[in-house]
Amino acid sequence: MKKFQLFLVSLFTLSALTWADDAIAFPTDSYEIGEIPQGESRHVKIGGANLSKNTVNIETVLCQGVGCSNFKFPKTVQPREPVNIEFDFSTATLEGPIANVIVIVETDGKTHPLAMQGIVKAPFIFSEKMFDAGYYKPGEKREWTFYVWSEDKKSRPDLELKKEFSDEFSVQVKNVSLNVENFDSIREGGKVPGQKITLRTKGLVKDPKLKQKSLSKIVSFESKKYPKATPEVLIIGYWK
Questions:
Q1: Which CA distances in Å does 19 have to 51, 57, 85?
Q2: Partner of 107 for a Cys bridge, out of 39, 57, 70, 73, CB 3.0 to 4.6 A?
């Protein structure tokens, strides 16, 4: 409580210069959520204050980005009073840098943004994650081969194709030792335990309800060592 009071005092001291045109202010321009293992969730609490002489009426709080849900916030914030925003952040479909923006929207349309930054750390590294099928005729068979290794470069990955994709795809997995010093030229014969995965189509069929010409398929894998992780690759192309 004392720390928050000191924070408010600091804000009030600087408000005339720094936040003269903004009723709601936060300690920093960016909330740092840190490093999160892929597949995990966090309950986030962000504290700020109403620095204006007017009551702030909040209509909603939203997120420009993915992974945020279940927002909790006060509908009314009196002058010189704190404002606390809470929400759940899921990394189930994320990987790499986080660059979301949390936006407080007042009932009169005024907005108060706050950037949220961090990193979602995946347990596996793929030599490739996007494959081009080119012009694809429904029913054609295609295949792509790529390598996967653990982020720690010590333990061997244990990826398998998720069962829900087995109607359209199959995989062949071979344990290999990799040289990953040059990411643009991953090759076998090194010291890093990995997997050589060959992904094959069983003959993709276009949904007749879809009118677009582009082909886009996300193919997901699973790991017993990291059941919360979401390793996946993307297949793109055009339907003939």
A1: 8, 18, 19
A2: 57
Residue 141 and residue 90 in one domain: no
- DSSP assignment, residue 8? H
* Closest by Cα among 195, 203, 200, 206 to 231: 195
Same domain, 111 and 146: no
Would you state the structure tokens that stand for residue 92, as one six-digit string? 């189930």
Tokens of 173: 């997995």
| Chain segment 130-183, per-residue pLDDT in tens | 999 999 998 999 999 999 999 999 999 999 999 999 999 999 999 999 999 999
Residue with tokens 């959520």: 33
Q: Are residues 115 and 91 in the same domain?
A: yes
Number of domains in the chain: 2
Confidence of residue 7 (pLDDT cuts 50, 70, 90): very low
Single pTM value for the model: 0.78
Using one digit for the tens of pLDDT, what is the confidence trace for 71-101? 999 999 999 999 999 999 999 889 999 999 9
Report CA-CA distances (Å) from 135 to 138, 235, 238: 10, 12, 5
Q: Which domain holds residue 233?
A: 124-239
Residues 7 and 117 reside in one and the same domain: yes
* Burial (CB count within 10 angstroms: exposed 0-12, middle 13-18, buried 19+), residue 153: middle
